[in-house]
Design brief:
Number of strands: 18
Strand content: 25-35%
Shape: globular
Strand order of the largest sheet: 7-6-12-13-17-16
Order of helices and strands: HEEEEEEEEEEEHEEEEEEE
Largest sheet: 6 strands, mixed
Number of helices: 2
Radius of gyration: 19 Å
Length: 310
């Protein structure tokens, strides 16, 4: 039995936090919405487990946040938060490739087990909620425009998939509020390639993306105003973060979530684990139900999830 257990190095933490009380609504959400409700008491506990086993860090959660959220459903997001079975794997000692590679969908996972997914599936020219590939879209809509959340985002820059999966598009303010912050750089998650994701409490680490000037040459037309991902361009040296919103600090490469675009990394400097890849999308319904597609969280062949005590 000891031999069977020897491969388990240690459990970093196993956190169960109950988030009791009324779930607050986002400022822009009408609290009288007939479908507005709180997270059901039976599933309102945040359960997350992070285990280091061999060369990998395994992250499993029930997808329930450990902080208050906005009201879901709301006028711009018709989906209710529900319990999930999130399972991710990332290398403990990630290696930089030296070449940024775009990562669509889930870019990482927060330390409370909530996925980080800065992009959307909304594309100019497609009907709201229409199914379509993540690639092949020249004018993809942003979830945060000029500091304002769109698509039903709450004050945590988060909203809900049609599957009930709550996920972050930008700085997770509710999570910052429950973490014991020591110093300026707060560790909030892990990227799909294993590098840590931080938030600077003083906003000292700045994005190097800038809003383009002039008008869009095609598609929706009009002035570049931040509505679409393509409204921005990377200008090296204009900030102190690289193309993937990362930097080397004290010999360690880390990513940052920032108040300004891109809000969270849109590319990776390492190799993403396949557990962060998408495996299809749910059936789309009316309204904004197709605003994002839920990721698949299965482990690759030969991999295995952490122990399942809950």
């Amino acid at each position: 039995m000891l031999r069977n257990l020897s491969h388990l190095l240690f459990v970093i933490f196993f956190m169960i936090i109950s988030c009791k009380g009324i779930v607050h609504a986002h400022e822009s959400v009408d609290g009288s919405h007939p479908q507005a409700h709180v997270i059901p008491t039976a599933i309102e506990r945040n359960i997350v487990q992070i285990v280091e086993d061999g060369a990998y860090r395994y992250i499993r959660s029930n997808g329930i946040p450990n902080h208050r959220t906005g009201q879901f459903p709301n006028r711009n997001n018709p989906n209710a938060i529900s319990e999930q079975n999130h399972e991710y794997r990332a290398p403990i000692n990630p290696l930089m490739t030296g070449q940024p590679k775009e990562q669509r969908g889930v870019i990482g996972v927060a330390v409370n087990g909530i996925p980080i997914e800065p992009g959307t599936a909304e594309c100019y020219g497609r009907t709201r909620g229409q199914r379509g590939p993540m690639s092949g879209c020249d004018w993809r809509e942003e979830a945060i425009i000029n500091g304002n959340g769109q698509l039903g985002l709450d004050n945590n820059n988060a909203h809900v998939q049609p599957t009930g999966a709550y996920h972050y598009h930008g700085v997770p303010y509710g999570l910052l509020g429950v973490l014991s912050a020591q110093g300026d750089r707060v560790h909030v998650g892990y990227a799909a390639d294993g590098f840590r994701i931080l938030v600077s409490m003083s906003d000292s680490y700045k994005s190097s993306y800038r809003l383009k000037s002039g008008n869009r040459p095609d598609g929706p037309g009009g002035r570049y105003d931040g509505t679409y991902t393509a409204d921005f361009s990377f200008i090296e040296g204009s900030g102190n973060l690289d193309q993937c919103n990362g930097a080397i600090i004290g010999g360690e490469y880390v990513y940052f979530m920032t108040k300004e675009f891109p809000f969270a990394p849109r590319c990776l400097m390492g190799l993403a684990d396949v557990s962060f890849s998408r495996h299809g999308s749910p059936a789309m319904g009316q309204g904004n139900q197709g605003l994002d597609r839920q990721n698949g969280n299965g482990f690759p062949q030969g991999g295995h999830p952490p122990p399942r005590p809950f």
